[in-house]
């Protein structure tokens, strides 16, 4: 029977619920929790004594020694194994630390995250033992600060279109690296660069260009930096263009093998997105706290504004969505820490959900604070500006939605293609047809069953059972309708992705609240149960709307409006002109 063996979200696209992957909700190991809590205490003290977020934002710079101070606390080597001088925390511990750092300042979190979430992550995931011994101790100690060099002036989301080249020297000992990288966080302070460049590889006797990942240590001849970029938010972080002009890179600095750079880059970003998502949770907690304080203090019409229904709705939605986001983050870090899971879709889903959750939270916080929220006297407008990058960073949310949809549909698409061949050759393909038929009968007659959720949440579990089967059915309809052209159908992709993201969010929440009820009892879990039920109501409406819109929608009208607008170069109407 066709089914992915190690991916929860991919299984949903087959109409299957692998509940053993998400139940019970993961518990943090005692030793990890103790270590993380000690680090959090140090971070909070660091925040009070050292971090000057408003001043740094105004100056568009932070003191360089702040990085050294974070390094002294061990924060530059959170996930590096202890044998290489790091703290050796699992991904769940790393995410929790990044959540706390982000709550202090966005620029600080970006700087630290760029160093280790993506800057030297290639070494951790794909590096050789020799490479790890050579670089990781210095990266963990902060002696080397890392930067991730993928984006170029003509290459953003389309990573395969990069123009940077690396040519093997005549003696075969070095690659000569030339190209320009754009918007590189930590650019001018970095001494270790994870660089992606096109190289020539020979496959089946033919020469081809493929992306290769290089570890480049600086300073060295040929590496220069552009001026610091002036940004909307995260203004105190270092962001520069990095130029490589015939830089000699030893062949032993290739990470992951010649021609395997795209795989390396995707692996890095799948990991890195969880640090970003966790940071969103930390900042959203700040926004909730600020909103609650103001709601409890500000009086209008002889009432505290927190007594008004519209304010209650805003704050409850902020709490609900952040609880769900937090549930997704730490479910996904658990999948990573297992070491045997494909977590690529879950990571993308968490990044999309958390970044959009944070944007709503900081926006609503300003709304609750009113005019004061708009003033630089308060940090809230800075939180909004800093938050905006998260929907662009490490894969735009549009690209990640396409990734979720197409990755999920890939397996069912291959199954349908195999089924079509099997029907043409019935004797050879009997097993394929039989497996497909058995699965469809099982789904149509018996459906999918969740057995591990708490009985109190039976109705919530039932909706997930129904939607999971409906998702697989709708995917099959789309694949039969569009075939290989499905990769061009972004209206449909977005709807499928949004359904899948909501389903994953619901499963994470169901699992977490089940654990709460089992450990605390229903009365003590009243708030968590209310959060789960409220979120399911919101998500159910979105999912139902997306399913309905697959066939009844305004897609063609929207395409026409966009195309006409392109022709006219902008908004073409004016009531004062005929």
Can you walk through the features of this model?
By secondary structure, this protein is an alpha+beta fold. Among the domains are: 146-263, Beta Barrel (Butyryl-CoA Dehydrogenase, subunit A, domain 2); 399-564, Butyryl-CoA Dehydrogenase, subunit A, domain 3. It is built from 18 helices and 10 strands. The chain has a 4-stranded mixed beta sheet with strand order 1-4-5-8. It has a 4-stranded antiparallel beta sheet with strand order 2-3-7-6, with helices on one face. Strands 9-10 form a two-stranded antiparallel sheet. A hairpin with a 2-residue loop joins β4 (192-203) and β5. The protein is globular and about 65 Å long. The N and C termini lie far apart (64 Å). The mean pLDDT is 94.
List keywords for this structure.
578 residues; alpha+beta; Butyryl-CoA Dehydrogenase, subunit A, domain 2; Butyryl-CoA Dehydrogenase, subunit A, domain 3; four-stranded antiparallel β-sheet; 57% helix; globular
Give a brief outline of the structure.
With 578 residues, the chain is of the alpha+beta class. Helices cover 57% and strands 11% of the residues. It contains 18 helices and ten strands.
CATH topology of the domain at 399-564: Butyryl-CoA Dehydrogenase, subunit A, domain 3
CATH architectural name of the domain at 399-564: Up-down Bundle
- Mean pLDDT score: 94
Range of helix content: 55-70%
SS class: alpha+beta
**What is the percentage of strand-forming residues?**
5-15%
What coarse outline follows from CA principal-axis ratios?
globular
**Strand elements, count:** 10
Strand order of the largest sheet: 1-4-5-8
Mind summarizing the main beta sheet?
A: 4 strands, mixed
Report the CATH superfamily of the domain at 399-564. Answer: Butyryl-CoA Dehydrogenase, subunit A, domain 3
Written as H for each helix and E for each strand, in order along the chain, the element string is HHHHHHHHEEEEEEEEHEEHHHHHHHHH
Radius of gyration: 25 Å
Summed up, the helix count is 18
pLDDT below 50 for ≥5 consecutive residues: which ranges? none
């Amino acid at each position: 029977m066709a089914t992915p063996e190690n991916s929860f979200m991919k299984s949903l696209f087959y109409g299957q619920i692998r509940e053993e992957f998400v139940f019970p909700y993961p518990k943090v190991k005692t030793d990890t929790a103790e270590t993380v809590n000690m680090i959090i205490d140090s971070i909070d003290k660091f925040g009070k004594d050292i971090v000057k977020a408003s001043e740094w934002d105004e100056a568009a710079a932070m003191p360089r020694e702040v990085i050294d101070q974070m390094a002294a606390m061990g924060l530059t080597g959170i996930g590096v194994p202890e044998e290489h001088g790091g703290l050796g925390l699992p991904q769940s511990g790393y995410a929790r630390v990044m959540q706390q750092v982000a709550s202090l300042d966005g620029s600080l979190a970006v700087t630290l995250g760029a160093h280790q979430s993506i800057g030297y992550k290639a070494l951790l995931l794909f590096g050789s033992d020799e490479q790890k011994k050579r670089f990781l101790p210095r990266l963990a100690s902060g002696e080397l600060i890392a930067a991730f060099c993928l984006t170029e002036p003509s290459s953003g989301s389309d990573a395969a279109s990069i123009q940077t080249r690396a040519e093997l020297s005549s003696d075969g000992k070095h690659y000569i690296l030339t190209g320009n990288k754009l918007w590189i966080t930590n650019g001018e302070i970095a001494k270790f660069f994870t660089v992606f460049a096109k190289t020539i590889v020979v496959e089946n006797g033919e020469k081809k260009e493929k992306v290769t990942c290089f570890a480049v240590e600086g300073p060295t001849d040929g590496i220069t930096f552009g001026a610091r970029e002036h940004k909307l938010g995260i203004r105190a972080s270092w962001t520069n263009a990095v130029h490589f002009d015939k830089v000699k890179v030893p062949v032993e600095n290739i990470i992951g093998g010649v021609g395997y750079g795209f795989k390396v880059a995707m692996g890095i970003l799948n990991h890195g997105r969880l640090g970003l998502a966790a940071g969103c949770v930390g900042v959203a907690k700040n926004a909730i706290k600020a909103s609650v304080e103001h709601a409890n203090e500000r009086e209008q019409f002889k009432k505290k504004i927190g007594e008004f229904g519209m304010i209650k709705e805003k704050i409850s939605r902020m709490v609900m969505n952040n609880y769900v986001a937090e549930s997704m983050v730490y479910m996904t870090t658990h999948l990573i820490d297992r070491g045997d899971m494909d977590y690529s879709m879950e990571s993308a889903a968490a990044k999309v959900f958390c970044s959009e959750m944070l944007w709503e939270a900081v926006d609503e916080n300003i709304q609750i604070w009113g005019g004061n929220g708009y003033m630089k006297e308060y940090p809230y407008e800075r939180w909004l500006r800093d938050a905006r990058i998260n929907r662009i960073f490490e894969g735009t949310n549009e690209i990640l939605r396409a990734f979720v949809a197409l990755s999920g549909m890939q397996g069912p698409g291959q199954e349908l293609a195999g089924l079509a061949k099997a029907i043409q050759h019935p004797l050879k393909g009997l097993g394929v047809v039989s497996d497909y038929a058995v699965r469809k009968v099982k789904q149509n007659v018996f459906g999918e069953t969740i057995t591990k959720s708490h009985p109190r949440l039976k109705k919530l579990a039932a909706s997930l059972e129904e939607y999971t089967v409906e998702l697989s059915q709708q995917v099959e309809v789309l694949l039969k309708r569009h075939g290989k052209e499905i990769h061009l159908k972004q209206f449909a992709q977005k709807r499928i992705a949004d359904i899948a993201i909501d389903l994953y969010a619901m499963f994470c929440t169901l699992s977490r609240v089940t654990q709460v009820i089992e450990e605390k009892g229903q009365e003590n879990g009243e708030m968590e149960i209310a959060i789960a039920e409220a979120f399911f109501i919101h998500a159910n409406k979105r999912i139902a709307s997306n399913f309905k819109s697959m066939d009844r929608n305004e897609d063609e009208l929207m395409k026409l409006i966009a195309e006409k607008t392109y022709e006219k170069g902008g908004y073409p109407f004016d009531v004062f002109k005929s």
